[in-house]
Amino acid sequence: MNMFKKFSMLLLIAGLIFSFQSQALSAEKMAFVDLSRLFDEYYKTKDYDKTLETKHNEFEKDRNEKIEKIRESQGKLGLLTDEKKSEMEEEIEQLKADLIEYDRQNKTDLTKERNEKIREILLEIEKEVSDYAEKNGIDVILNDRVLIFGNPTLDLTEQILSILNKGQQ
Which distant-in-sequence residues (6+ apart) come within 8 Å of 163 by Cβ? Predict the structure, then answer.
């Protein structure tokens, strides 16, 4: 009986070793991408940056016009009678309050729009990366930010970038 136990144990150990070796041979196919580079060099990101810059410039222009109106009103204060001066001071305070609200609202709106667009672009990039992985039998694609080392031959950034920017050059 003792010999049977030893033989069984030997078979069990051999089976486990064989099992581990077969798992090692069927290792997952892995790769990585530089997600920040994909985002920065994607044509939709660049296009949106231009749109956002235009909106920001329009906001700054309107804001500067409002500031100039306040300055003009403040410049006229010395020329007015006390009664008119009081009215003008109230008007200036209202203009300042309106400017602060305008500034706050526009910054909030631009930030919200920017965050939504970033999310939309990142989802598009993620979909392209996932589609590429499926088509090429890749089990795992990591963001290079989580890697300590990655063999450059496993870097798919250029391939994914060319897919994302296809027809935009």
Answer: 128, 132
* pTM as predicted: 0.73
- CA 55, 59, 64, 65 dihedral sign is positive
Identify the DSSP state of 27. P
Instruction: Return the domain boundaries, the chain.
Output: 2-164
Render each residue's pLDDT in the chain as its tens digit; 169 residues. 565 565 555 555 655 565 544 444 445 799 999 999 999 999 999 999 999 999 999 999 999 999 999 999 888 887 878 888 888 889 999 999 999 999 999 999 999 999 999 999 999 999 999 999 999 999 999 988 887 888 898 899 999 999 999 978 6
Ramachandran area for residue 147 (φ above 0: left; ψ -120 to 50: alpha; else beta)? beta
The CATH classification number of 2-164 equals 3.30.910.20
Number of H helices, E strands in the chain: 5, 2
Which H/E stretch holds residue 77? none
